[in-house]
Design brief:
heterodimer; A: 285 residues; alpha/beta; Rossmann fold; six-stranded mixed sheet; 13 strands; 30% helix; B: 459 residues; mainly alpha; two-stranded antiparallel ribbon; 19 helices; 4 strands
Chain lengths: 285, 459
């Protein structure tokens, strides 16, 4: 596999239930080493997309691949390189935390007990307790440690920090990237690819390399965050015609719009740069 | 089948409890084996051992099936390597099969050496049948098999047990099973190994998808039933002392209903002899003592509907002065419902299996004409006593007192010559109702929000 091969690829992915279309024609290609922030309002389809990506849901149409392997038929070689944290963690309630970590860890060749315990300590996880006696936040931490302890090449995280306090959240973000940095230092060419769905946009803004915005089951916008910062501008509703393709979104209430200056260079110096928070609001206005 | 990894498929407590119970049965087995050469009267003991072993194996099978389903769900949701899930599957099935083998060997040896009318293949047939039913019921409840199986097995087993106990008796029913043709028993005997092999084969390569849906079944009639049952919180005495976060115990509506059904099954089982009180007859002291036992069972399984902080904050919600009545209404709703369901199942299955006409059911029920009022009284007493806030102490003292009273009465008068105390008539009914009214008022004073919230079902 070359470096250019996307780690995650979906083609016209759709998911329909009797009452609604949850995913609508999503084609996505995530390059190796990307840290993708998956954002959207509640019910936009983020969790369903992640579940389809890891093969926990069968799409009504289209397909998804991880490491060139169909999501619905992941091989053990791919599973060993994958870490996934579901929105509501499912755990063995009767086990102690250390026992739980070892039970799952023994299947992963790259699982390292020392590394796992360091991670648990860094996240302040009470390892001596039985899982059923953990608080909601601690269960979330355990799910995160389980996903990270085997040093996966691909991490899919569905609102992993929603129950965590700010200090643990910071430690979690560090844990994601400290290990990645150490891999790069060793020149192992094993950049970790991450998709993280979260509503904590200020946290995301600091770490993402790409952002994917979802709305009503559709992929509204997907690009490198640096590129969006450089080229998107929030401008007052233009009086002259803007090329339709350059108009990312219009907010009639505030008479403002977001313009992609790559397609409308005349607006390069107009308006202002948007934060992730602002872009999210404009896209969902 | 082999397991490449090591797993703890159940909690330390469960493992120790199971090992201890198996050790007790092993000692009992050795005792029977040694007595066999000196006495021919060991046959009832062997039958009792097989029944106890079947019960224990059913529990083991259910726990292992639940562990199997939980493993499939947890590992599946993490997309952990398939070999881990496979190993878990094998470990779970092997653990059950070892226990099955242990019991089959022990039971078969005893039956082969004894003068019992039961064939030597009976132990294997009984254990395999029980294990298959328990495993299929639990797996289907977790969505690993079609969910209808859970209903069919649960209701079918209940109907069979109730109908057998009320017609020919459990012992005679087991005799019928033990005397089935050997070829048929052998077919039943191999049902567990075949099922285990089939499950291992089916799920070794393919992940059971149904298990991801929810923790337990969530469709159709079951969803409505489970949703309704979840509104009831069991006010277990032991739970009150629990200071940690709420456990998953209350989340299982199945257990909740089993707990409530427990005293009702007791009523029916005991009813034939002790609780029958036709209008105009006289009841003895033993009847009162048995009512005491009913109260004891009720006190273990009283429930509160919609126990949630919203109920306290909502206008017209729970407040001191009406909590006792609310608990009573909640408990009685479940108890009367379960009683009616049990009676219906019992009548239909007795008619279907043993051709007993409904007229005889009506005659039988007429013996218990005041039982609903006695149940109201017993439940109210249970709610009131629990309201005192000393449940464990009460249960210990109360049960000791009842056992002493029962023992004394049986020792002094025997079963059939109990002294008559009260006539079943308007006076008795008025006495029960007026005492119940007083108890309701007292329980309303005793129960407080603070006491109730120790059983809260939210984080």
């Amino acid at each position: 596999m070359t470096n250019d091969n996307p780690i995650i690829e979906t083609s016209r992915l759709s998911m329909r239930y009797e009452y609604a279309t949850v995913l609508n024609d999503i084609s996505l290609s995530v390059p190796r080493g990307a840290v993708v922030g998956l954002v959207g309002r509640n019910g936009a389809g983020k969790s369903t997309l992640l579940r389809c990506l890891v093969g926990l849901e069968e799409p009504s149409q289209g397909s998804a691949q991880l490491f060139n392997c169909p999501s619905l038929d992941l091989t053990d070689a791919v599973r060993e390189r994958l870490g996934y944290v579901a929105q509501t963690p499912d755990l063995f309630e009767w086990m102690e935390v250390t026992e739980h970590l070892r039970t799952i860890g023994q299947a992963y060749p790259r699982w390292n007990e020392e590394r796992c315990m360091v991670l648990a300590a860094r996240m302040n996880l009470p390892i001596g307790r039985t899982v059923k006696n953990l608080s909601g936040g601690d269960k979330q931490k355990l799910a995160v440690v389980l996903a990270l302890a085997h040093d996966p090449d691909l991490l899919l995280l569905d609102e992993p920090v929603s129950n965590l306090d700010p200090i643990t959240r910071r430690e979690f973000m560090r844990a994601l990237f400290l290990d990645r940095a150490s891999e790069e230092e060793r020149g192992a060419n094993k950049e970790r690819t991450i998709i993280i769905s979260s509503h904590l946009l200020t946290d995301l803004e600091r770490v993402v390399s790409h952002v994917a915005f979802m709305r009503d089951g559709r992929l509204q916008l997907f690009d490198a965050w640096d590129s969006l910062l450089e080229h998107l501008r929030l401008v007052p509703q233009p009086t002259i015609d803007v090329p339709r393709a350059a108009l990312v979104c219009k907010n009639p209430r505030d008479a403002q719009c977001v313009i992609d200056t790559r397609l409308a260079p005349e607006y390069a110096d107009a308006g202002r740069i948007l934060s992730l928070d602002e872009l999210f609001e404009e896209l969902n206005a | 089948m082999r397991s490449a990894y090591s797993f703890n498929l159940e909690s330390e407590y469960s493992r120790i409890a199971m090992a201890m119970l198996m050790a007790v049965l092993a000692v009992y087995w050795l005792a029977l084996l040694s007595l066999m050469y000196h006495s021919e009267k060991v046959v009832p003991g062997i039958k009792l051992l097989l029944v106890m072993a079947a019960g224990l194996l059913a529990v083991k099978g259910m726990r292992q099936a639940a562990a199997l389903a939980t493993g499939a769900r947890v590992m599946g949701k993490m997309q952990a390597p398939q070999r881990l899930r496979r190993s878990w599957l094998y470990a779970s099935l092997m653990s059950t099969t070892y226990a099955w083998g242990f019991f089959v060997a022990g039971g078969t040896v005893l039956l082969a050496l004894s003068q019992s009318s039961w064939k030597w293949t009976m132990a294997a047939a009984l254990f395999s049948t029980i294990l298959c039913l328990a495993t299929i019921a639990v797996l289907s409840r977790y969505g690993m098999l079609h969910r209808t199986w859970s209903w069919i097995i649960s209701l079918g087993s209940l109907a069979l047990v109730v109908a057998t106990s009320l017609t020919i008796g459990i012992s005679a029913g087991l005799d019928l099973f033990g005397e089935l043709p050997m070829a048929f028993q052998l077919m039943l005997a191999i049902s567990w190994p075949l099922l285990a092999y089939r499950l291992a084969l089916n799920w070794s390569n393919e992940q059971p998808i149904g298990v991801f849906a929810t923790r337990e079944a969530n469709d159709g009639v079951w969803a409505r039933f489970a949703g309704y049952a979840r509104r009831y919180t069991i006010l277990q005495p032991a739970k009150a002392a629990h200071s940690g976060p709420p456990t998953s115990f209350q989340s299982s509506p199945f257990r909740a209903f089993v707990l409530v059904a427990n005293p009702l099954c007791m009523f029916l089982a005991m009813g034939q002899q002790y609780l029958a009180a036709p209008w105009g007859s006289k009841i003895g002291a033993l009847h009162i003592v048995v009512l005491g036992f009913v109260t004891l069972y009720c006190s273990w399984s009283i429930v509160c509907k919609d126990l949630h902080w919203r109920m306290v904050l909502a206008p017209g919600g729970l407040y001191r002065g009406k909590i006792g009545g609310h608990i009573l209404r909640s408990t009685l709703t479940l108890q009367y419902t379960m009683l009616l369901i049990l009676l219906l199942i019992c009548a239909v299955s007795a008619w279907a299996a043993f051709d007993i006409p409904f007229k005889r059911d009506v005659e039988w029920i007429s013996k218990f004409c005041v039982f609903p009022i006695e149940m109201l009284f017993a439940t109210t007493l249970a709610v009131t006593l629990r309201g005192t806030g000393l449940p464990m102490l009460f249960i210990g003292l109360f049960s000791s007192l009842l056992i002493i009273c029962m023992g004394t009465l049986l020792w002094m008068y025997g079963l059939k010559h109990q002294p008559e105390l009260l006539a079943v008539g308007p006076t008795y009914v008025c006495l029960l109702l007026s005492t119940t009214a007083l108890l309701i008022m007292l329980s309303n004073r005793l129960w407080t929000i603070k006491k109730l919230f120790r059983f809260r079902n939210w984080a």
